Amino acid sequence: LENCSLYNLELNFNFSLFRKLNNINLKYNYISIIKKSYFESNSYLTSVDLGYNLIYLIEYNSFRAVSQISYLNLNYNRLSYFNQTMISAKTSLKIREIYLNNNEIIFYSN
């Protein structure tokens, strides 16, 4: 779904139809908010690429159901705040790679 002019994942795509999805590439879209409901049906996801969007907000526990995730790319977005609780305490232990380059981060907390 790279470069598909997606704005709102709830309106554009129903991820619950793909419960065994492993990797998702959502780069080069217009996504601005990541809600905790977006990936709650995708517990098999290991790689999520959200680079080159307009993301300024990630709701707390947005990746709570994605307990297998090991790669998260958030490069080139508009994040000014990042805390690992945005992901989830249990998920953050398994993530091996988080990319936050070229955001507007003024506060980071783990």
Question: Which helices and strands, and how do they pair?
Answer:
Elements lengths: L8 H4 L10 E3 L7 E2 L12 E3 L7 E2 L12 E3 L7 E3 L5 H4 L4 E3 L7 E3 L1
Parallel strand pairs: 1-3, 2-4, 3-5, 5-7, 6-8
How would you explain this protein's 3D organization?
The structure is a single chain. The protein has 110 residues and is mainly β. The chain has two helices and eight strands, in the order αββββββαββ. It has helices at 9-12, 89-92; strands at 23-25, 33-34, 47-49, 57-58, 71-73, 81-83, 97-99, 107-109. The longest helix is centred in the N-terminal third of the chain and has 4 residues, at 9-12. The mean pLDDT is 83.
Supply the key terms.
globular; mainly beta; 4-stranded parallel beta sheet; 2 helices; 7% helix; two-stranded parallel sheet; 20% strand
Strand content: 15-25%
DSSP helical segment count = 2
Please state the structural category. Answer: mainly beta
* Spatial strand sequence of the major β-sheet: 1-3-5-7
Helix content percent band = under 10%
Largest sheet geometry:
4 strands, parallel
Radius of gyration: 13 Å
What is the element string, with H for helices and E for strands?
HEEEEEEHEE
Number of strands: 8
Calculate the terminal CA-CA distance, rounded to whole Å: 30 Å
Unreliable runs? none
Mean pLDDT: 83
Assign an overall shape: globular
